[in-house]
Structures are given as C-alpha cells and as structure tokens.
Amino acid sequence: MDNQIQEEFVLNANYRMDESLRMIKICLDKLSEEVIWQKPNEATNSIGNLILHLCGNITQYGIASLQGIEDNRNRDEEFSVLSGYTKNELFQKLVSTVEDAKKAISEVTIEELLKKRSVQGFEFSGVGNIVHVVEHLSYHTGQIALWTKILNNRDLGFYDGVDLTVKNED
Predict the structure, then answer these.
(1) What is the mean pLDDT, run by run of 10 residues, along the chain of 170 residues?
(2) Torsions phi, psi of 158, nearest 5?
(3) Has residue 38 been placed in a domain?
(4) Is residue 72 part of a domain?
(5) Would you state the pLDDT for residue 170?
(6) Deepest in the core among 1, 101, 114, 124, taking most CB within 10 A?
(7) 162: burial class by Cβ within 10 Å (0-12, 13-18, 19+)?
C-alpha cells in the first residue's frame, strides 16, 4: 500500500511541476526579451529573477536535500542578477532543474520521504520538501502569469479548448 501511495504522490507532484512549466512557457512566448528583466516596481522581482529563484529553491529543497548532497545555493544572487540570460536560456535552466528534481523525487525511498531534515532552517520531511517545491513553483508561476497579463492586457489561454465548467463526478 505504501508503494501505491508513494507512486501516486510522485506522479501528481511531477504532473503539477510540468503544468507550471507549461504555463511559464506560454508566458515567455508572449513576452519580448526586453521585459524579462523588467520589474513592476522596486518591491517586486523580474521574471528573470523569479526563474533564477525557482531554480535555486528547487535545487535546494528538491534535489540537494532529497539526495543528501551539498547545498550550494546563493539565494541573494538569484535576486541581484539584472541580466545575462535570454528568456530561452532561463526556461531551459528551469526545465533542466525541474527534470533533475523529478528524477530525485522519483528515486526517493519511503524512508527518505519520511526522514526529517533541515532546509533553510526549517524542519521538513522529504514529503514536506516535495510539497514545498510544488507549491513554491506554482506560487511563482502565478506571479509570472500575472505580470505577463499586466504587460499584455490579455488572457493567457492556459486552458484554451478545455471546458472548466464541467461538474465533479463520482
């Protein structure tokens, strides 16, 4: 039974990460290179910084921690970079990071899923780390989507062709 729950959990975590990647790609395709490093205001981050931040966070929580390897994250740098990557380079970096995390998540044992570890000073199990990776990626995907909508003043079409009014069935 534990194995079935683990497989279902991993399948859904990976699906949600792929959905975020799909949405970020749609956003990037609707944006010019010039706006990738633009900040809405001084209290917010550019899309470029958000993607670098996601790569750092996913690596720290979803790869280094789960695999028990050294944490080399430089969080401050994720926000201080002002250019240097194209939108395609940023997206490829994010895809590569997510793929590495999906591999780490798929290979984790039940013991590692339950094992508590310290990440950024917080105590989480492997399950907690995976939930954090998925929700954190989703959270910043929403920020990227909002900034893209503001810049373009139009719907992003994430669910074009899908009837989202269908009611639940048993």
Answers:
(1) 86 98 98 94 94 98 95 92 95 98 96 94 96 98 97 94 91
(2) -55, -35
(3) yes
(4) yes
(5) 79
(6) 101
(7) exposed
Residue 5's SS3 state is: helix
CATH number (domain holding residue 19)? 1.20.120.450
Residue 148: what pLDDT? 97
Strands (E), the chain: 116-119, 122-125
DSSP helix, strand, coil percent of the chain (3-state; round to 5)? 65, 5, 30
Q: How far is CA 125 from CA 98, 132, 163, in A?
A: 19, 10, 37
What's the total number of domains in the chain? 1
Residue 159 β-bridge partners: none
Which class for 143: exposed (0-12), middle (13-18), buried (19 or more C-beta within 10 A)?
middle
Query: What domain range is 90 assigned to?
Result: 2-152
Q: Give 124's strand partners.
A: 117
Q: Is residue 105 part of a domain?
A: yes
Contact in structure between 64 and 24 (CB atoms under 8 Å): no
- Predicted local distance difference test score (pLDDT) of residue 59: 98
Beta strands in 17-160 (DSSP E): 116-119, 122-125
**Residue 161 within any structural domain of the chain:** no
Structure token digits, residue 55: 């790569």
